[in-house]
Amino acid sequence: MTRSLRRSLVPLPILPDRIHSRPMALTKAQSRQRWAELRNLVADWDPLGLLGMGAPADEYDWLLTPLLKLLQESARAEQVASFLEGEFAGRLGLDVPPDFRARIRFFAERFSELSRAET
């Protein structure tokens, strides 16, 4: 390397370690399995009681993609509960009374346990 070229090089910034701590991408099969497991978890919860009244199995699928992201980020139960309360209140325009909030927090704890088991 010539002396003039060496002087013109600007040192690259040191990248944060968090780049290396990102979760690895899932295979298609793993993604499908995780989707199915999460769908079952939400169906068991049946937050609005719709599945128990005969609604289709995909009734709560609109929650799955953001929940999968939270799962991949190892979100804490408080974060999951906050997301769910926001979805039910904002997207569906539902009041979130204390008993429903307690059910959301119970689900969030179960979800958080699943997240910890995956790490």
Give a short synopsis of this structure.
The protein is built from 5 helices and no strands. With 119 residues, it is an all-alpha fold.
Descriptive account of the structure:
Helix 2 packs across helix 3 and helix 4 packs across helix 5. The chain starts with a helix and ends with a helix. The N terminus is likely disordered. The chain is built from five helices and no strands. The protein has one domain. With 119 residues, it is an all-alpha fold. The radius of gyration is 21 Å and the shape is globular.
Q: Number of DSSP strands?
A: 0
Distance between the termini: 46 Å
Could you say which structural class the secondary elements and strand pairing correspond to?
mainly alpha
What count of domains describes the coordinates?
A: 1
Count of helical stretches = 5
From the alpha carbons, calculate the radius of gyration and give it in angstroms: 21 Å
Structural key phrases:
5 helices; 0% strand
Structural topology:
Blueprint: H1 3-8, H2 28-45, H3 61-72, H4 77-91, H5 98-118
Helix pairs in contact: 2-3, 4-5
